[in-house]
C-alpha cells in the first residue's frame, strides 16, 4: 500500500531523495541548483512535501527548495514502534541539515512545521537568514478546537484517526482544511491522502495529534514553551507571514501572537484561504514570497 507517484505526476512532478536517519529512511524534495540560496520548507499534520509542490515549482529556477517528509509522513518510512514526538522530529531535522551540510537558509513553516523548524532554529540561529510563516505556532496554546481534542483522546482518538481516517480524511474529504474545495481535484486528493491509505500508514498522524501539548502537564509542553521563549532570538530577522484567515485551528489570534514576537515581519492576511493556504491562494502567495526573497537575500 501507499502512493504511486505516477498517479500524481501532473501535480507532483518530482523525484524525491531519501536519506538514512537513525536506521530509517527520510524522504525529501531537493529542487533547484545545489549552489543556490536554500529554502527549507517544513510541513505539518496531516500533509507532507506535497503541500509545497507549487512553491518548489515556482522557485527552483533561482533557489534550492528542500522539503522533507517528517518520519511517518509522506514518502518517509512509517515505523510502527517509533518515538513520534516533537523532540524526535526536531532531532531528525537537525540530522538532515547536518547531512546535507546546510549552513544558511530561509525557514518556511506550516502547522507542526513551526515547532519542528524553530526547535532546530533556536539551537542554530546563525543558520536562519529569513523566515516564512504559514498558519502555524511555535509557542504554547491551549486554544485547541474540540474536533482536534477528540482525536487525541485515549482509545477513541486512535480509532478515529487510524481506523476511520477522521483526521486526514476530514481535512481533505470533508474539506475542513480548505476554503476552496473545488481545488481538491481527484489527483490533489490522491496526493494528500495517498501516503495515508491504511491504519499502519496513519500512525504518525495519530501521534502528532497526541503530542499536542494542550496543558502544562503534557510531556511536550516544556519543550514548546522553551521554543516560544527563545523566539525573541529572531525578533529582528526578516520575516513574512502568509495567513489563511479561514483556518478553524490556527486562527487570527495565532497570527497576532506572531506579530507580537517578531518585529521585522511583513504580514498578509489571505481572506479567502483556509488552513492549507498554499492550496487556496498560491496565486497570491508566490508573488509575495518572490518579492520578499528578492529583498532579503
**Mean of residue pLDDT?**
97
What is the CA-CA span between the terminal residues?
A: 42 Å
Largest sheet: 8 strands, mixed
What is the total tally of β strands? Answer: 8
- Pairing-aware structural class of the strands and helices? alpha/beta
Broad shape: globular
| Helix-strand topology string | EEEHEHEHEHHHHHHEHEH
Commentary on this structure:
With 297 residues, the chain is α/β, with parallel strands linked by helices. It is built from eleven helices and eight strands. The protein has helices spanning 53-59, 86-99, 113-121, 146-152, 156-163, 166-172, 186-193, 203-210, 221-229, 252-261, 277-296; strands at residues 17-21, 24-31, 38-42, 64-68, 105-111, 128-136, 239-244, 265-270. Strands 1-2-4-3-5-6-7-8 form an eight-stranded mixed sheet, sandwiched between helices. β1 and β2 (24-31) form a beta hairpin. It starts with 16 loop residues before the first strand and ends with a helix.
Task: Please sum up the structure shown.
The chain is α/β, with parallel strands linked by helices. The chain has 11 helices and 8 strands. It has an 8-stranded mixed sheet, with helices on both faces.
Amino acid at each position: 500500500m501507499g502512493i504511486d507517484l505516477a498517479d500524481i505526476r501532473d501535480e507532483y512532478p518530482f523525484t524525491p531523495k531519501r536519506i538514512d536517519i537513525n536506521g530509517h529512511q527520510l524522504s525529501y524534495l531537493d529542487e533547484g541548483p545545489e549552489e543556490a540560496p536554500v529554502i527549507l520548507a517544513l510541513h505539518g499534520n496531516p500533509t507532507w512535501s506535497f503541500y509545497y509542490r507549487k512553491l518548489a515549482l515556482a522557485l527552483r529556477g533561482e533557489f534550492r527548495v528542500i522539503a522533507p517528509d517528517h518520519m511517518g509522513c509522506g514518502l518517509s518510512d512509517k515505523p510502527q514502534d517509533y518515538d513520534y514526538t516533537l523532540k524526535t522530529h526536531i532531532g531528525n531535522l537537525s540530522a538532515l541539515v547536518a547531512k546535507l551540510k546546510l549552513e544558511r537558509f530561509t525557514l518556511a513553516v506550516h502547522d507542526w512545521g513551526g515547532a519542528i523548524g524553530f526547535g532546530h532554529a533556536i539551537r542554530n540561529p546563525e543558520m536562519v537568514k529569513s523566515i516564512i510563516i504559514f498558519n502555524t505556532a511555535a509557542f504554547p496554546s491551549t486554544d485547541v478546537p474540540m474536533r482536534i481534542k477528540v482525536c487525541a483522546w485515549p482509545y477513541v482518538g486512535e480509532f478515529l484517526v487510524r481506523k476511520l481516517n477522521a483526521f486526514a480524511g476530514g481535512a481533505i474529504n470533508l474539506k475542513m482544511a480548505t476554503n476552496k474545495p473545488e481545488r481538491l481535484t481527484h489527483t490533489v486528493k490522491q496526493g494528500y491522502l495517498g501516503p495515508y491509505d491504511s491504519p499502519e500508514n496513519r500512525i504518525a498522524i495519530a501521534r502528532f495529534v497526541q503530542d499536542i501539548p494542550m496543558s502544562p502537564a503534557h510531556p511536550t509542553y516544556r519543550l514548546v514553551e522553551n521554543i516560544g521563549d527563545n523566539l525573541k532570538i529572531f525578533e529582528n530577522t526578516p520575516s513574512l507571514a502568509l495567513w489563511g484567515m479561514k483556518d478553524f485551528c490556527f486562527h487570527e489570534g495565532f497570527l497576532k501572537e506572531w506579530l507580537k514576537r517578531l518585529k521585522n515581519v511583513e504580514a498578509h492576511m489571505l481572506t479567502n484561504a483556509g488552513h492549507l493556504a498554499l492550496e487556496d491562494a498560491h496565486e497570491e502567495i508566490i508573488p509575495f514570497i518572490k518579492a520578499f526573497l528578492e529583498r532579503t537575500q
